[in-house]
């Protein structure tokens, strides 16, 4: 395995978390990763950097562009000053923390902005729907986990199956149905929050085809 490029970044503040995310994104693009794989590793970098800062007392990350047998990838190595995890069971409980929701929103927002450019407009529309759920749900912890999982799986499927002849119509229909389910859920949980209903009921401006 060969290291083609390496960058070491200290993690001492929230700005450093952003820099770790940006460095990972730059090398993920340089490695030629797909849009979905870029989003996965950028989200992982953001979450690990945030944990290094909040629970590890700060530290650093080394972001490497690597190559092995003609294939390129990105390697992340984090080191912090923390004592470890005293209660592993509590750490593994289901639910979304505020920071993880923010990271998921940023990842979905990135896909929404970049998907059409990369030739995946339906993925962008699905990511837009996921952004709306995170933004308008009164309590993200009470959002059915399957609703979020279905959005993530749909984005992956749209990208993976892009070369099939019926992909455009199928992807657009999948995106439309998910948006309908998400809007129905958001309208229900925001029935006493009229200031959110207007935005929920507004048509999406993200292209699906």
Q: Could you describe the 3D structure shown?
A:
Helix 4 packs antiparallel against helix 5 (121-136). The chain is flat, with a radius of gyration of 19 Å. The model has no long low-confidence stretch (mean pLDDT 81). It has helices at 14-30, 35-54, 88-91, 98-114, 121-136, 145-160, 167-189, 194-201, and strands at 2-11, 59-68, 71-80. Strands 1-2-3 form a three-stranded antiparallel sheet, covered by helices on one side. A hairpin with a 2-residue loop joins strand 2 and strand 3. The chain has two domains: 2-80, Histidine kinase-like ATPase, C-terminal domain (Heat Shock Protein 90); 94-201, no CATH class. The chain is built from eight helices and three strands; from the N terminus they run βααββαααααα. The protein is 58% helix and 14% strand. By secondary structure, it is of the alpha+beta class.
Defining key terms:
3-stranded antiparallel beta sheet, 209 residues, 8 helices, 14% strand, Heat Shock Protein 90, single chain, 2 domains, alpha+beta
SSE blueprint:
Elements: E1 2-11, H1 14-30, H2 35-54, E2 59-68, E3 71-80, H3 88-91, H4 98-114, H5 121-136, H6 145-160, H7 167-189, H8 194-201
Antiparallel strand pairs: 1-2, 2-3
Helix pairs in contact: 1-2, 2-4, 4-5, 5-6, 5-7, 6-7
Report the end-to-end length measured between terminal Cα atoms: 40 Å
Query: What class, by secondary structure content?
Result: alpha+beta
Strand content: 5-15%
Task: Show unreliable segments.
Answer: none
E-strand count: 3
What's the shape? Answer: flat
Strand order of the largest sheet: 1-2-3
Measured as a percent range, the helix fraction is 55-70%
Number of helices: 8
> What is the CA-based Rg, rounded?
19 Å
The major β-sheet equals:
3 strands, antiparallel
Mean pLDDT: 81
| Helix/strand order | EHHEEHHHHHH
Provide the domain count. 2
């Amino acid at each position: 395995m060969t290291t083609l490029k390496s960058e070491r970044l200290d993690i001492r503040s929230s700005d450093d978390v952003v820099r770790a995310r940006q460095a990972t994104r730059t090398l993920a693009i340089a490695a030629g990763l797909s849009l979905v794989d870029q989003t996965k590793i950028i989200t992982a970098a953001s979450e690990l950097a945030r944990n290094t800062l909040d629970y590890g007392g700060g530290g650093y990350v080394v972001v490497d562009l690597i190559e092995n047998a003609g294939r390129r990838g990105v390697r992340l190595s984090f080191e912090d000053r923390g004592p470890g995890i005293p209660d592993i069971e509590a750490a593994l409980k289901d639910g979304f923390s505020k920071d993880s929701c923010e990271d998921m929103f940023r990842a979905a927002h990135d896909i929404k902005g970049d998907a059409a450019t990369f030739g995946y407009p339906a993925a962008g529309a699905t990511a837009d729907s996921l952004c709306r759920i995170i933004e308008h749900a009164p309590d993200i912890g009470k959002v059915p986990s399957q609703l979020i999982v279905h959005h993530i799986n749909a984005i992956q499927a749209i990208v993976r199956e892009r070369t099939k002849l019926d992909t455009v119509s199928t992807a657009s229909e999948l995106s439309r149905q998910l948006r309908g389910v998400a809007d129905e859920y958001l309208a229900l949980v925001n029935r006493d929050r009229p200031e959110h209903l207007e935005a929920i009921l507004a048509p999406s401006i993200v292209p699906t085809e």
